[in-house]
Amino acid sequence: MFYILESQDHELVGMILFAGSGWGLDFCEGKRVPLDFDERPIIVELQADHDELPDYFEIDGTPIVSEGFARTWRALPLDNYQLFPVLVRLPGHEISTHFILNIVGLVSCVDQNASDYQVYESSIMRILNLVVDVEATSLELFRAREYPLAIFISNSIRQALDDAKLSGMSIRPADGWNDLHRF
Question: Into how many domains does the chain fold?
Answer without folding.
Answer: 1
